[in-house]
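Supplementary Note 3. Input sequence used for the single-chain structure prediction.
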Amino acid sequence: MAVSFGIASYIEGGVIAAVITLNIIVGFFQEFNAEKTMESLRSLSSPTASAVRDGKTQVVPTAEIIPGDMVELKTGDTVPADI
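The predicted structure, written as discrete structure tokens, is reproduced below.
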């Protein structure tokens, strides 16, 4: 790009600068959308489980499952690794 401007080929240098700028803008928006998507996926995979404690069904984080809890599993549920 600098060489194009140095030899007074302004059209060629302008086109190269425009392509580089467009590439930066498109890359920024793709990265931004990818980060939003990853954050959405992280929130969907919050590790919780349905456990029966004292005869009542409660939704608890998987880290709080203790021996003696009965875990209710439904179709599509993620199985806590502690069971």
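The CA atoms of residues 41 and 63 lie 20 Å apart. The chain has two helices and three strands.
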